[in-house]
Specification:
Strand content: 25-35%
Number of helices: 1
Shape: globular
Order of helices and strands: EEEHE
Helix content: under 10%
Strand order of the largest sheet: 3-2-1-4
Oligomer: single chain
Number of domains: 1
Radius of gyration: 15 Å
Largest sheet: 4 strands, antiparallel
Number of strands: 4
Structural class: mainly beta
């Protein structure tokens, strides 16, 4: 996962799915409602600001409700 500065969408955090022969990076989101790879288009290496090294998930995502 990387944080990048997208020309159209601003700062986004996405997963790199492919680096093409021209050195462009293709990204995808983790959620069903995320932009598609085709909607975002490729980004250049210079647009990548940081690499995500860990994430924190909401406990409700993994715990069943007891109510």
């Amino acid at each position: 996962m990387v944080k990048c500065r997208h020309i159209r969408y601003g700062y986004i955090i996405k997963t790199i799915v492919k680096i093409d022969n021209e050195g462009r990076y293709w990204l995808e989101g983790e959620n069903d409602s995320s932009l598609t790879t085709e909607q975002m288009g490729p980004i250049l290496r210079e647009q990548i600001i940081a690499r995500v090294i860990f994430t924190i998930a909401s406990p409700s995502k993994y715990m069943a409700s007891t109510y």
